[in-house]
Each structure stands twice: as C-alpha cells, then as structure tokens.
Amino acid sequence: MNSRAIDLRAKKNKRIGIKIIPGHFSTSHSHVNYYIDMTDIKSYYKKAKLAAEELAKAYSSTPVDVIICLEGTRIVGAYLAEELAQTSIAAINHDANLAVVTPETNANNQMIFRDNIQPIIWNKRVLLMVASVTTGKTIGRAMECIQYYNGQLAGICALFSAVEESNGIPIHSLFSLKDIPDYQNFSPHECPYCKEHTKIDAMVNSYGYTKF
C-alpha cells in the first residue's frame, strides 16, 4: 500500500504534510476510498508542534479551559494548549493552565471520564480535537460525553475533516475535501466497491491500518 501513497501538504503551511493512499478501506462506520495517514503528525513532536501552531490560529480569541483529544491526538493537543497559552499578552488564553485529557470508552462504546478527571471537565470550556472526521459519528458521541459531564463545547478542530460543521459548530481542520476533492465515504450496504466485488485493502481506525 505504501507504494501508492501520495504526499499532501497543507495549503496554509507547506511544512505540514500527510499521506493519502487510494483504495477500498473499511472503518467502524463506513467504507472510504482513501486511507489518510497522519502517523507523522501524531507521532513526531516537531510535526505535531507545527500542526498545533496552525490550528491555534482559529482559537486565539476563544476562551478554552481544557482540550479533549481523541484518536491519538494528545501530543498535538498538548502543543495546542501550549500555543494557546503562549499567544500574545492580549490573547484571551494568555498564560492559562489548560488541561489536556482523553476519555475512555466503555463496553457500550460510550466515552467516559473517571471520577478524578471529571472536575477538569465540569463547567469548563472544552475544545474538542480529533484526527479525522468522515461521518461525524465520533464527534456526536464526544459531544454527548461533554454534555453529560457538564462541559461547554467551545470549538472543534481536526487534522482532516470531510465535513465543515457538526450540530452548527464549525470544524477547523488542517486538511479538508478541498485538498482531497474525490474523497468519498459510503455506508457498507451502499459501497460501490463492494457491489463490484472489489476486495477491501485494509481495515482502518485511529491507530492505523491492518491489511487483509
């Protein structure tokens, strides 16, 4: 699969890059025609820092107390917290001690926080960070979680998003459908590749991919 990988650079900062691989892939919610590989951004501190610096620009005037990180974005989230707190003196989050947390998932596939973490969320302004948004179902679950623990959703950011908003809240992302205009996702029952009996290349999730 790596031989089919295409390097893609962010329009606003050419130093930020991901790899996209065309094919037939299965996620937990849908089938997609590209695997979007964000391993480098999520793993290497210099690349994570560059991504955080770019994402922070959208929230310089947004009050934030805690960043909830999903899908392996906690390194980026930590740098995002640092960037928001180190913005100029006039910025609203200057010198704030932002928290960075990740929820657990229980047996019912619900996102939860343990008792010791709940005070970090309760009545706090939350910035939600995800790696990839395709159908928006993961964001929906996260929003239910934030509401359950009485958090106030201040914004949503992503490394890649195929949608522009969720429940009326804009999603600020480094990469979007403008970068991958032929990106598509389908329900498993309506997938044209399956109807043509095209084999699935790999099962993909936030951790990466497993080839069949």
Automatic annotation (TrEMBL):
<keyword id="KW-0328">Glycosyltransferase</keyword>
<dbReference type="InterPro" id="IPR029057">
    <property type="entry name" value="PRTase-like"/>
</dbReference>
<dbReference type="InterPro" id="IPR000836">
    <property type="entry name" value="PRTase_dom"/>
</dbReference>
<dbReference type="GO" id="GO:0016757">
    <property type="term" value="F:glycosyltransferase activity"/>
</dbReference>
<keyword id="KW-0808">Transferase</keyword>
<protein>
    <submittedName>
        <fullName>Orotate phosphoribosyltransferase</fullName>
    </submittedName>
</protein>
